[in-house]
Amino acid sequence: MVAVSVLLMIGGLLIINGVYAYHSKHIDAHFLSTLWYYVKILPLLLSSILMIGYGVKFLTNSFHHLTFALIVSKGLEILASVLIGYLFLKEIPTWRTGLGIGIILIGFWVVKGK
């Protein structure tokens, strides 16, 4: 169940971050074109929100710890953001990115250790 929840969260987070990255790079800043873009991809956003929600729910049921599930979700969100930033904008992660991910991993250890 843990693997399913992590896969659901990763899938949903990649979709959401991909939608926003595509918007920032390819969609005109005018209100109507932005509105039309989001109307067209509303089913995609709804499915990604459901994926993230069920991923958090299943992880919470597995560990009986909501805080841990939400921290895992935020950590996966950072990893998805780094990946999407590289794929869409060719941004190379710096040492600060690695430090931030390291701090999050320490946070996993601290939360799960209690």
UniProtKB/TrEMBL annotation:
It is found in: Endomembrane system. Keywords: Membrane, Transmembrane, Transmembrane helix. Its main location: membrane. It comes from the Bacteria. It is a multi-pass membrane protein. The chain crosses the membrane at residues 37-56, 68-89, 95-111. This is EamA domain-containing protein. It comes from Salicibibacter cibarius. The lineage of its organism: Bacteria, Bacillati, Bacillota, Bacilli, Bacillales.
